[in-house]
Specification:
This protein is mostly beta strands. It has helices at residues 34-38, 230-239, and strands at residues 2-9, 12-24, 27-32, 58-65, 68-78, 80-81, 84-85, 88-89, 99-103, 110-111, 115-116, 130-135, 148-154, 167-171, 182-186, 191-194, 197-200, 208-217, 224-229. The protein is 6% helix and 43% strand. The strands form 4 sheets. Strands 1, 2, 3, 4, 5, 8, 9, 10 and 11 form a 9-stranded mixed β-sheet that branches. β6 (80-81) and β7 form a beta hairpin.
Length: 251
């Protein structure tokens, strides 16, 4: 479900990251960390690419070729139309480091492995349950496009927002390239954690729950990373709008 992303400006590469396709109300969206698309740090507002002083105007998505698992195709998606950004940001601004880019006509070139935003979550998790950050650390891929699964544990209480934002922290050794990665709970044995114990998966749903979008480490010396909750993803898609100013960041 994770996708390898390359951000560029005027055809020149700027950065790489991770994204995931989310389906909601009959539409598909590329959901990723906001700073992948804006080119600016969501906390400080500074340009990430100090060398170029630029921000992306396109994102290239590496998809599975239509019905050909293990074969890949790339689709270039413009991020601006008539000079205006097309992506949606959170109603609270880019401090909530999640954006959604609308995707059109992908069914003609790629197989879509989308997370259904409307599907009920199976797992009831808490500190310190294990999760997976599924992305591309140091731009490493398996088989040219498959992601790397990195383990982590939930580090802050899910029932409360961390630092006044709709996010929680994970303890995991994540690296550059994983920004925008989906954070999943996954069970290979079919048992699902619930409050006070476990239950057996009925087999009607895959033992997989999307918890949020990985944004990045709290600082370069820490193994704690920020994950914006699934509620933030929903707010972006249902209530978000394109930014009036790609530099605006509101706490």
């Amino acid at each position: 479900m994770s996708l390898y992303l390359s951000m560029s400006v005027n055809g020149a590469p700027l950065a790489n990251g991770t994204g995931v396709i989310v389906g909601h109300a009959g539409k598909f969206w590329l959901v990723t960390a906001g700073h992948n698309i804006t080119g600016r740090d969501a906390v400080t507002g500074e340009l990430i690419s100090q060398r170029t002083g630029a921000w992306p105007d396109t994102v290239t998505i590496r998809h599975t070729w239509m019905d050909q698992l293990g074969q890949w195709t790339e689709r270039v998606v413009p991020l601006f139309k008539d000079g205006q950004p097309i992506w949606l940001q959170h109603p609270r601004g880019l401090a909530v480091d999640v954006v959604a880019v609308p995707l059109l006509e992908l069914d003609t070139v790629a197989t879509i492995y989308a997370v259904n935003l409307d599907a009920p979550g199976l797992a009831e998790l808490a500190v310190p349950d294990e999760v997976s950050i599924v992305g591309y650390p140091f731009n490493i891929t398996s088989g040219e496009g498959f992601p790397v699964w990195t383990r982590g544990t939930i580090a802050t209480e899910l029932d409360f927002d961390h630092d006044g934002l709709p996010m929680f922290l994970v303890d995991s050794r994540t690296r550059t390239g994983q920004s925008g990665a989906p954070v999943f709970w996954y069970s290979s044995h079919g048992m699902i954690p619930v409050r006070g114990g476990w239950k057996l998966n009925d087999g009607q749903n895959p033992p997989l729950t999307l918890l949020g979008i990985y944004s990045g480490r709290t600082d370069q010396h820490s193994d704690l990373g920020r994950v914006f909750k699934l509620s933030a993803v929903r707010d972006v898609i249902e209530h978000g709008k394109p930014p009036d100013d790609v530099f605006s960041i509101e706490a």
